[in-house]
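Example complex used in Figure S2.
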Amino acid sequence: MSKREVSFTVNGAAHTVSVYPMERLLDVLRCELRLTGTKEGCGEGECGSCSVLMNGELVNSCLVPVLQAEGATIATIEGLAGESGLHPVQQAFLKCGGAQCGICTPGMVMATVHLLGHTPAPTMEQVREGLGGNLCRCTGYTRIFDAVLEAAGSRK
Amino acid sequence: MRAHPSEYELVAPGSLPAVLELLAREPGSWMPIAGGTELMVQYGAGKLGARKLVSLWGLPELRSIESSEQELLIGAGCTYTDLRNDPVVAQQFPLLARAASWTGSIANQNRGTLGGNIVNGSPAADSLPALLVYEADLLLASARGTRRIPYVEFHTGYKQNNLAADEIIRAIALQPRFAAYHSYTRKVGTRNAQAIAKLCLAGLGKVSGNRIKDVRLAIGSMAVTPVRLRRTEETLLGRPWSAALISEARQALEAEVAPIDDVRSTALYRLHVAGNLLHEFLEGLFA
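Predicted assembly (443 residues):
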């Protein structure tokens, strides 16, 4: 199979890449677009390190063949911070100490952005469900969940 | 080791007729791929045998949920998120809505499709026992036309099914006639999100005059396919509540399933827990 062109929008910028259709969206983001904030953990959809938003929905980019991203709007961790500084979810993770080694953090943050987009004032149970597909091997989850509630403005 | 992506072909014809035409032209040589939550895992592990894939993702013909008085028609490309968000599924088919909610993680629910789950045929798939008790039909489409079969006849063995080489599942049809039934489902696993079930029981039942008027039971992760528990149902039908009923039902269940031993659990554990879930279903049914 030869390469072909696939076009999509990433963090507001239009891109056309020449790729094999079965390349993983994760690899195209990291290797073609040099957006290495999206991490590879398990490579089988279990850990959530490679979470990005595709057309507004949280997906594991390791399980998306890039051809299926044709025409899609993609958001990665690099697109969150703006000119005025970090995104509120990133600020909350900083404030609450919701990161240690950092590998899971981009995925945790993207899952949080997705959760709060659908459920602006989540209960702890909804936080646990929203981040249930994101694994952290360092901190445990308490500070991460604190950060999600902080970002939602509902931390006691 | 992952295979190199250059060794794989993936095309996206963009419409259902175009996909069916491709499958008809070269039957058996194209593997349909929807949300990739199963096939991309195999691909990542270097275990995906199919080298030519055709994408079903985003086909509008497969992505709608249509409700009429007679039935609910769920497009095979609907994701678990679609199922969770649909008010008719929530109201009329709560077992399916609940199973969708504990399938994988949110990211997996955004990509995994009901049709893909059925074709993949994992005995542990969360939503399949619900489809069995609701007596779903499948609409199978090919360039030759559409045929309708009861879902219970679809799986013919471990990861084996009745699809012809040029066919795909177009939709899942459910009849809304169980609103008055007591419904029960429970998944036993190591963790809510992601964890694959050690066991999952789904049950529907109706009691009148203290006797079981109607009952449907199905179990996942027990045998090589999800199975309807017909003999256990027969044991229960027409019977009033009693301690003897529980033990007879447990015996019937143990007699009719061939439990598997695998990485997630043992046959002995599965049988014992299945009996416990059946007991819990019956308690709720008579409550």
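The CA atoms of residues 128 and 140 of chain A lie 12 Å apart. Chain A has a mean pLDDT of 96.
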